[in-house]
Amino acid sequence: EKLLAFLSNSKENAFITDVVILSPDTPKWQNDYLCGTGMEMYTETLSTSFVGMSFPQAAELCFVKLKLLLLAIEVINDDGSDSKISINPKSKRNLPRTPRFFYCTICR
């Protein structure tokens, strides 16, 4: 059996959120499903270091350096009255300073 501990990472704390026991006797799809149940999604405003990067650049940096999977950005209009979530936006768009969405788990 392989024991995987999934960690959450937020600006307030880091703690173990779930422990999943995987077994070689269990079908692969079921082990994959169990791994997914240990993942949580959080929003976070990223550092100004990300402003001006394309989404693929920021996603790669988050994955390689922070071990986080960046999924989407929130785009807020100029007066702040409306927003939308853009999942895996085109690389032409540079990132503003808005909340980003990602899974908070160890990416292996």
Description:
- It is found in: Membrane.
- One of its GO terms (molecular function) is large conductance calcium-activated potassium channel activity.
- Residues 23-73 form the Calcium-activated potassium channel BK alpha subunit domain.
- It is a multi-pass membrane protein.
- Keywords: Ion channel, Ion transport, Membrane, Potassium, Potassium channel, Potassium transport, Transmembrane, Transmembrane helix, Transport.
- The chain is of the alpha+beta class and 108 residues long.
- Helix content is 20%, strand content 37%.
- The chain has 2 helices and 6 strands, in the order ββαβαβββ.
- It has helices spanning 28-37, 55-66; strands at 2-9, 14-22, 41-45, 69-76, 83-87, 99-103.
- Strands 3-6-4-5 form a 4-stranded antiparallel beta sheet, covered by helices on one side. The protein has a two-stranded antiparallel ribbon with strand order 1-2.
- The longest helix has 12 residues, at 55-66.
- The protein is elongated, with a radius of gyration of 16 Å.
- Residues 1-17 have low confidence and may be disordered.
Per-chain topology:
Blueprint: E1 2-9, E2 14-22, H1 28-37, E3 41-45, H2 55-66, E4 69-76, E5 83-87, E6 99-103
Antiparallel strand pairs: 1-2, 3-6, 4-5, 4-6
InterPro entries: K_chnl_BK_asu, K_chnl_Slo-like
GO molecular function: large conductance calcium-activated potassium channel activity
Membrane topology: Multi-pass membrane protein
